[in-house]
Specification:
Organism: Streptomyces aureus
Radius of gyration: 20 Å
Protein name: DUF1295 domain-containing protein
Oligomer: single chain
Number of helices: 12
Shape: globular
Order of helices and strands: HHHHHHHHHHHH
Keywords: Membrane, Transmembrane, Transmembrane helix
Pfam families: DUF1295
Number of domains: 1
InterPro entries: UstE-like
Strand content: under 5%
C-alpha cells in the first residue's frame, strides 16, 4: 500500500526515546567518573545517530528502502561528525563554563541536578528533534523531488558546519590570533556558520520526511521548529553572543556581519 504506516511509526516512538535516553544515561555515568559534564555535548550527535539506527532496524519491511537508508545516513554522518569535532575540541580542557554556571544554581546534590536539567532534558530534545528521522522510515511511497531537495539542503548545512568549524580551529591554532575575533571565510558571511548549518541540516531532513507524505510532515514539523528556536532564541546564538560581547573587536564585527543567514559583509566607512 502506498502511503504512511502510522501504526508502525507509533510503535517506533518508545524504542527511539529509549535509545536517546540510554545514550544520555551512559554519558552521565562517564561524566561522574571524569568529573566533566561537558561530554554531554559529544553525546548530542551520538544520540541522534542512535535514534536513526534503531528506527532503521525497526522499520525494515515497512517503509521505502531508499528513503530509509537516505535519512539514516544523513543523520549518522551529521551526528558522528559533530561528536568527533566536539570531542577533539574539548580534549585536555576542564569543565565548560556554561555547565559550571548551571550547576552553581543547584540546590542539593549537583549530580542529580545535572541528570535532571542537562541529561534528561537533552535526551528528550534528541527524541523530539529526531521525529522526522523516525517518521521518514515509514513512508511507503517512492522517493520524489522532496527527498532530493532535502538532501541538497542537508549538504549545504553540513558544508557550513564542517568548513566553519575547520576554519575556526585553524584560526585559533595560530598564536598571532590570540584574543582576536574570527572574521574570515564563512565567518565573514555569518557570525554563526555552524548554527546556520544546523538549521539547514534539520530543515533538509524535514524535507525528506515531507517526501513520505503530508501527514508525516504535519506531525513532525514541530521538530525543525524546535531546533530553529534553540539555535536562534535558546541556547545557541544568544548564549554565545552574550559570551563574546566583551571581547575586543566583537562589536565592530557584529555590526558588519550577518547574525545568522549568510550575506556579504557590510563595508565600514
Amino acid at each position: 500500500m502506498i502511503g504512511f504506516d502510522w501504526a508502525a511509526f507509533a510503535r517506533n516512538l518508545a524504542p527511539g526515546a529509549s535509545a536517546a535516553l540510554l545514550v544520555m544515561a551512559v554519558t552521565f555515568a562517564v561524566a561522574l567518573r571524569t568529573g566533566l559534564h561537558r561530554i554531554v555535548d559529544v553525546a548530542w550527535g551520538i544520540g541522534f545517530t542512535a535514534v536513526a539506527l534503531v528506527s532503521y532496524v525497526l522499520s525494515a519491511g515497512d517503509g521505502a528502502p531508499g528513503r530509509r537508508l537516505l535519512v539514516t545516513v544523513l543523520t549518522a554522518v551529521w551526528g558522528l561528525r559533530l561528536a568527533l569535532h566536539i570531542a577533539r575540541r574539548g580534549r585536555g580542557h576542564g569543565e565548560d563554563p556554561r555547565y559550571e554556571a548551571l550547576l552553581a544554581r543547584a540546590r542539593g546534590n549537583r549530580d542529580l541536578y545535572a541528570l535532571r536539567i542537562v541529561y534528561l532534558l537533552q535526551g528528550v530534545l534528541v527524541w523530539l528533534v529526531s521525529l522526522p528521522v523516525q517518521a521518514a522510515q515509514y513512508g511507503t511511497r517512492p522517493m520524489s523531488a522532496f527527498a532530493v531537495a532535502g538532501a541538497a539542503l542537508w549538504a549545504v548545512g553540513l558544508f557550513f558546519e564542517a568548513v566553519g568549524d575547520h576554519q575556526l580551529a585553524r584560526f585559533k591554532s595560530d598564536p598571532a590570533h590570540r584574543g582576536r575575533v574570527m572574521d574570515r571565510g564563512l565567518w565573514s558571511l555569518t557570525r554563526h556558520p555552524n548554527y546556520f548549518g544546523d538549521f539547514c541540516v534539520w530543515w533538509g531532513v524535514f524535507l525528506v520526511t515531507c517526501d513520505a507524505g503530508a501527514g508525516a510532515a504535519a506531525v513532525t514539523v514541530v521538530s525543525p521548529l524546535t531546533m530553529s528556536y534553540l539555535l536562534l532564541r535558546g541556547s545557541g546564538k544568544p548564549l554565545l553572543e552574550r559570551h563574546m560581547a566583551e571581547r575586543p573587536g566583537y562589536a565592530a564585527y557584529a555590526a558588519g556581519t550577518s547574525g545568522f543567514f549568510p550575506r556579504p559583509p557590510k563595508r565600514g566607512p
